[in-house]
Amino acid sequence: MPLPLERRALKNGPPPSVRPAGHHWPVSGNKSGNAMPQEAMPRNAFKRAIHAGRQQIGLWCSIPSPFTVEVLAGSGFDWLLLDTEHAPADIPEIFAQLQAAAGGSASPVVRVPSNDPVAIKRALDAGAQSLLMPMVQTAEEAHAAVAATRYPPEGIRGFAGMSRATRFGRVKDYFKQAHDETCVLVQVESAQALDNLEAICAVEGIDGVFIGPGDLSASLGFLDGQGAPEMVKLIEETLRRIVAAGNRPGILTADRTLARRYMAAGSVFTAVDIDLALLVRQTEALAAEFKAG
To answer: How many CA atoms lie within 13 A of 292 on its CB side?
Structure first.
């Protein structure tokens, strides 16, 4: 039976005379009523820079605050490490920090809590394009890290069409472009990882190999000894091994002299301090200066 006239009219929304101004009412046969806006796929400047061998100076962000990230994103650094391994941050905090970083010139790199496909997927869906996977010790673990960032058939990343990564569905062909803009960094920080270093570097899809000096020093018996001459020499040798293996090394050190030595040895993405450490040192120094009279 045909619908009454008034019901046929309501099926396509109220008549134009009573529709709210500016409201695009859906019509039959078109779920949106108009073409969905399209956005361009964000380009990963950090990935392009390290592949070109351009030194990227970074800052480690341990304070899980979008406020501080927004400030630091405009301070002149090339990249900021947003930490979820040791910092008290999870996806809601990282989501907000990525939003805060978007207004600055520094590229955000998210360190996931572990080399876990679910953690990696969630960080990618939140909009992270560069990821650092901690404690990667074998080529197999490096392969797993890459697979977690790739859609099938190249990998195992799950599909989520309405995510911040896809600009909520507005990036056309996101699933075809995502691999090119995803930067996979793995962290070597144990004696076992050093034994497997060349094999890790050779894994297709690994864009950079980051030396974790703290855990590496502890693994080799130099607890609290990152600056020990033997460790400094070993780190320099490891940086050169990564370069010789055809990959791109990175490191973190708050020691200015060591940072320059490590860059000379081949580090191409170098974090030169930690936000929380800067806050502690500078505030303590300021208080001590004025209390001294």
So the answer is: 6
CA separation for the pair 162, 144 (Å, rounded)? 25
The catalytically annotated residue of 51, 86, 143, 179 is 86
* 142-174 b/e (C-beta count within 10 Å ≥ 16 → b): bbbbbbbbbeeeebebeeeeebbbbbeeebeeb
What secondary structure does DSSP assign to 195-262, as a single string? Answer: HTHHHHHTSTT--EEEE-HHHHHHHTT-TT-TTSHHHHHHHHHHHHHHHHTT--EEEE-S-HHHHHHH
Instruction: Read off the tokens for 80.
Output: 């900021």
Q: How far apart are CA 56 and CA 84, in angstroms?
A: 21
Helix (H) or strand (E) holding 152, with range, is none
Report, in angstroms and rounded to the nearest whole number, the Rg of the chain calculated over CA atoms.
Answer: 24
Residue 21 clears pLDDT 70, i.e. is over it: no
Domain ranges of the chain: 57-291
CA torsion sign for 58, 107, 119, 182 is negative
Question: What DSSP assignment string belongs to 59-114?
Answer: EEE-S--HHHHHHHHTTT-SEEEEESSSSS--HHHHHHHHHHHTTSSSEEEEE-SS
Prediction pTM value: 0.86
Q: Please give the C-alpha separations between residue 145 and each of 60, 85, 165, in angstroms, as whole numbers.
A: 21, 15, 18
The pair of structure tokens assigned to 64 is: 């899980």
The domain made up of 57-291 has a fold known as: TIM Barrel (3.20.20)
Candidates 195, 198, 210; CA nearest to 246 is 198
| One-letter identity of residue 100 | A
Which amino acid, residue 285? A
Q: Is residue 86 annotated as a catalytic residue, yes or no?
A: yes
Q: 139 to each of 104, 136, 143, 149, 291, how far by Cα in Å?
A: 35, 8, 6, 16, 54
Digit-coded pLDDT (tens) for 147-200: 999 999 999 999 998 999 999 999 999 999 999 999 999 999 999 999 999 999
In what helix (H) or strand (E) does residue 17 lie, and over which residues does it extend?
Answer: none
